[in-house]
Design goal:
The structure holds two protein chains of two kinds. Helix content of chain A is 46%, strand content 15%. By secondary structure, chain A is an alpha+beta fold. In chain B, α4 (69-82) packs across α7, α7 (223-258) packs parallel to α9 and α9 (303-329) runs antiparallel to α10 (340-353). The chains are: A alpha+beta, B alpha+beta.
Chain lengths: 391, 390
């Protein structure tokens, strides 16, 4: 048992902190700090800055730009990035399709896609969920039928995050409708979003933003070489990918930043002659959330420090569940600190409401998503009850 | 940073686990032991002494083993796992810890060697009917007559106060709160013992011009020493609570897979399994915090703050798991014959000995604006952390 980081890891942490706070353009970090959406151009710029320094895909195989870091190093990298309000490398590229291609793709696919995926020269979107296949993903109905050297794709995907920016989609399709188990008839196909027959329709969210989409496929012709792995083994890749999706999903650094912000804003807000931070109830709420975040961070550290053998630590299932709840608790705190000013969500010119108060409620509403995506918290409870408690 | 025990620590855990399993692996054995005074098994206490457990945190020159907070945490967790009623935290970590921290070399040798050998049980007589988790004394006063002291007033509830061979007593002097040593057979000492709800023992301890010896040098205020000893005991209790919560959850999970209603075992009901999953979340978060606080103590960091954090987390988790363990069992959970309810009772007791979760939260809230962010691996918890420090 040892509390302190080793001198090497302390130096590593300092190196990360210095890079993120000095090399990533300040205006992009300011946008994240203000909790405003980062546009595509800035997102690409930020990731390319990281990639040029070897910090976009450290968890990939070394051959494709990975760094062979320990899980603890990767944890520190991610935490420092979040604390510095650096946009994280696009998850669809770096946590999802990249690792899948590195693991299951052909040599041609790796060479064709991985460098561009790391550098965000290709922006990927995820074609997984469908109107009738959410948590029950294996029920998906989008079909791909072989026609000579091509696959013909028909069907619909939904919740396609940032699909409007995407160049390519990685898409789960049913290729064997007769398979005995529905999981066994699924394949993973890659195709450009501008392929004829692909239509994207935006879904407006409660926060007024355009973040997710529906994507429709009508006789979309996909060359056979764009199949990843073997036919009908898509479910294996989906599980591998979703496992990666849950890595780093605790987002401790982000919530830590939000609590820091909550303290600053509560201190600047005066009610009845005292600041909100001096209000015992508010101070208690912040302190309790901070303590719960500490417990989560320590659990994350336990998991990463003791998972060097590659097997997931049993406590890792806690991270998604609790991490999402605490992100939501932090955004809720910010709404409550804003109080009545939180109503001015879409004020523009001519309003005296500060920007942080305007953005508070839309973000709080938007963050209801975090306990739903990445395997809903009910799915996590099912995993804990089944695989850990044996229920 | 490393959250894993080394091989010696693993050996200690296995040895203590083995001993306590033999004594209390059968919950009925604990129930019988706690039925009669002193509420624990003198034989098991002796075996813990033989194993070196009762001298674990004390320096070798004081008759101890020279181990630290990590070893204390390991033992406390095993105590909690089977609800061993032996007063390890109370006598060794808290009362013994105060002697170790404050006592003169002579007093340490005189008091800690017999404690480590199992021949003398210590108790800290500090709680008073009119105070609430304060580090200062108010209701017992000390009077000096030359070099000799007498105490007058009431302490209650004093855990193991009737059985203790030696009492460490806090009392008011002109300089603040001082610490004294009172022998169990001192004149003017009246001890009225009774059972506590968790099977333990406590006492009303009344002093009437009772002769006492000053612990340590001088009569300066010892509140900070008491606060620090409380912190180490709170951390040990956090680990004891983790052990108890783990068993409560395991017992509940096993029950859900065995008990049948409506023709199926209870684990077929998602309303129940999801609640068990939430108990697991509470347990693991509490475990992380308890381990960390032990590491902070080991590293020489801000142990008072770390203890409050562990106290808050284990208080919330203990109440959650304790209550749900009974509810998911149904009526049998409230019976004395079945073991799970005793875990809830013990967790409730731990929650009120040295401050509950709200008590810890109030203290943390008072300083929440002092730091922009918390770094569990940095100052003030890990002294000397940072680049260039090592």
């Amino acid at each position: 048992m040892r509390l302190q980081l080793s001198p090497e890891l302390e130096a590593f942490r300092e190196e990360m902190r210095t890079f993120f706070t000095t090399q990533v353009p300040q205006e992009i970090r300011d946008t994240v700090a203000a909790r405003r959406h980062v546009g595509k151009a800035d997102y690409v710029r930020a990731q390319q800055t990281l990639n040029a320094a070897g910090l976009a895909v450290p968890h990939w195989p070394v051959e494709w730009g990975g760094r062979d870091w320990t899980p603890l190093q990767r944890h520190i990298w991610r935490e420092e990035m979040q604390l510095a309000c650096v946009p994280e490398p696009l998850a669809f590229n770096t946590s999802m399709i990249g690792p899948v291609l590195a693991q299951f793709g052909s040599q041609e696919q790796k060479e064709r896609f991985l460098p561009k995926t790391a550098n965000l020269d290709i922006w990927w979107c995820q074609g997984f969920s469908e109107p009738d296949a959410g948590s029950d993903l294996a029920s998906l109905r989008t079909t791909a039928v072989r026609d000579g050297d091509d696959w013909i794709v028909n069907g619909q995907k939904t919740w396609t995050t940032l699909g409007q920016h995407a160049d390519w989609i990685f898409c789960l399709c049913r290729t064997d409708p007769t398979a005995e188990k529905k999981q066994r008839g699924i394949s993973l196909l890659l195709f450009p979003m501008d392929t004829p027959g692909v239509t994207l329709r935006p879904i407006e969210l409660l926060d007024g933003g355009h973040e997710v989409n529906e994507v429709f496929f009508e006789d979309v012709r996909v060359p056979a070489e764009n199949l990843v792995g073997e036919e009908n083994t898509g479910w294996t890749m989906a599980k591998f990918l979703l496992g990666n999706e849950r890595v780093g999903i605790a987002r401790v650094g982000t919530t830590k930043y939000y609590l820091k912000l909550a303290k600053e804003l509560a201190r600047e807000t005066t009610v009845g002659g005292r600041t909100l931070l001096d209000d015992p109830r508010m101070a208690g709420r912040i302190a309790e959330t901070e303590n719960e975040l500490l417990a989560l961070e320590l659990t994350a550290l336990r998991v990463v420090a003791n998972s060097a053998d590659g097997k997931p630590h049993p406590a890792s299932s806690v991270l998604k569940l609790r991490g999402s709840e605490l992100q939501q608790a932090a955004t809720e705190l910010l709404v409550d600190i804003a109080g009545p000013l939180s109503l001015a969500s879409f004020a523009d010119g001519g309003s005296e409401v500060p920007d942080w108060a305007r953005v508070a409620t839309p973000e709080y509403l938007n963050y209801r998503k975090v306990s739903i995506y990445g395997g809903s918290n009910e799915v996590q409870r099912t995993i804990i009850a089944g695989t850990i408690l044996g229920l | 940073m490393d959250f894993q025990f080394d091989s010696e620590q693993n050996d200690l855990r296995e040895a203590v686990r083995g001993l306590l399993d033999r004594a209390y692996g059968d919950a009925e054995a604990r129930r019988q032991v706690t039925k009669t005074d002193p509420g624990f098994d003198e034989k098991t206490w002796g075996q813990l002494a033989e194993m070196g457990v009762l001298g674990l945190p004390f320096a070798e020159e004081d008759g101890g083993m020279g181990a630290g907070p990590i070893e204390v945490a390991i033992v406390a967790e095993q105590i909690g796992r089977v609800l061993a009623p032996e007063p390890f935290v109370e006598a060794v970590v808290l009362a013994g810890g105060l002697v170790a921290a404050v006592g003169t070399a002579e007093q340490r040798a005189e008091l800690l060697a017999p404690l480590s050998e199992g021949s003398s049980v210590l108790a800290f007589a500090h709680a008073e009917p009119t105070t609430r988790w304060s580090a200062s004394a108010a209701g017992v006063t000390a009077s000096a007559d030359g070099d000799s002291w007498t105490l007058t007033g009431v302490k209650e509830p004093v855990l193991n106060g009737a059985r203790a061979d030696v009492l460490v007593v806090s009392a008011v002097t002109d300089g603040g709160t001082a610490l004294f040593v009172v022998d169990g057979d001192a004149t003017g000492l009246t001890r009225t013992g009774y059972r506590t709800h968790d099977g333990g023992r406590a006492a009303n301890v009344t002093f009437a011009s009772t002769p006492a010896r000053l612990l340590g040098e001088g009569t300066g205020d010892r509140a900070a020493d008491i606060e620090r000893a409380f912190a180490l005991a709170r951390i040990a209790y956090a680990n004891e609570a983790v052990g108890a919560m783990e068993t409560a959850l395991r017992t509940t999970s096993e029950y859900l897979t065995q008990r049948k209603q409506f023709g199926v075992t209870l684990n077929k009901f998602q309303a129940l399994t999801f609640r068990a999953a939430d108990m697991y979340v509470s347990l693991e978060l509490a475990r992380s915090t308890a381990l960390w606080a032990s590491m902070v103590a080991d590293a020489g960091g801000d142990v008072v703050s770390a203890a409050d954090r562990a106290r808050l987390q284990t208080s919330r988790a203990g109440r959650h798991i304790g209550k749900e363990a009974i509810q998911l069992h149904g009526g049998i959970g409230v019976t004395a014959e079945y073991k799970v309810g005793h875990y809830t009772s013990r967790l409730t007791a731990i929650d009120h000995v040295l401050g509950d979760g709200d008590f810890a939260l109030d203290r943390l809230a008072a300083t929440v604006g002092d730091h922009p962010t918390l770094d569990p691996l940095g100052e003030p918890y890990a002294p000397g952390a940072g680049v260039g420090a090592a």
